[in-house]
Amino acid sequence: MKVNEAEAKAIGQRIDAARIDRGLTLPELATRTGVDYSQVFKICKGQFIVISGSVWQICNKLHISPLPDALQDEDERRLTRGVLSLWNRTHEDADRIVKMLHSIRDVRDGS
């Protein structure tokens, strides 16, 4: 998902605040997320144009949403955290989770 400069900066500030709240240095966050230090640095500074897998990975580790504030409400944040907590970061697992969510939708809709 593309973001504008202001959104990227706001997301970066939210990430950096969460990192500091948890007492993590940038190198520690890089190690814990498996994201290269230089990418972590740029993401925390809001220097990106797409909410990439690395942004999602960092946000998941910090238990925050990478979505711009305009796209968030409490239920959305709760759902995002819940789905991300299930995902083991593989393409195959993402496919399984999406299929599971579609099955839930079908049951809910009576399909």
From TrEMBL:
Name by which UniProt lists this protein: HTH cro/C1-type domain-containing protein
Organismal lineage: Bacteria, Pseudomonadati, Pseudomonadota, Alphaproteobacteria, Hyphomicrobiales
Domain HTH cro/C1-type: 15-70
Organism, scientific name: Devosia pacifica
UniProt superkingdom: Bacteria
InterPro entries: Cro/C1-type_HTH, Lambda_DNA-bd_dom_sf
GO MF, one annotated term: DNA binding
